[in-house]
């Protein structure tokens, strides 16, 4: 769906993109009384990539987290973290205290047309995976404890990319 040569690649600081995305979605977060905790490691190397597409990944992951938490009682916490990954890349984590993902669905959650939402089309996470892979990254999901889901992805930084050339 997304190819590496279709990207509008620029170097940018990823934490600023995370902050902008949280601000963009702040009204939904407030409406559903979700506490946002961000732990953005500084300094991160810059990422070289398509800023708009990578923001779409963050929007989709955070929106899914909001929807997962909106219908349940109890604490509603969104944790967004960034850190330096092995090899100099960056790792981003979006964790929620929502309904989580059934263990038998974890292996297919990124498949096209798979959804566990009543009104879902099953394209959002598939598109996220395509975008991350087009950026030479990887994305995965695990269960959050005691409840919810943790979506994580890794991207190469400009330092890691220049070391590989």
Q: What this model shows, in words?
A:
The chain has 165 residues and is of the alpha+beta class. The protein has a single domain, classed as Heat Shock Protein 90 (2-Layer Sandwich), CATH 3.30.565. Helices cover 33% and strands 24% of the residues. Strands 2-4-5-7-6 form a five-stranded mixed β-sheet. Strands 1-3 form a two-stranded antiparallel ribbon. It is globular, with a radius of gyration of 15 Å.
Would you give the CATH topology? Answer: Heat Shock Protein 90
The major sheet is characterized as: 5 strands, mixed
- Please report the number of helical segments: 5
State the strand order across the main sheet.
2-4-5-7-6
Q: What ranges have pLDDT less than 50 throughout 5 or more consecutive residues?
A: 160-165
Helix content: 25-40%
The total tally of domains equals: 1
Give the tally of β-strands: 7
- The end-to-end span amounts to 26 Å
Average pLDDT taken over every residue: 86
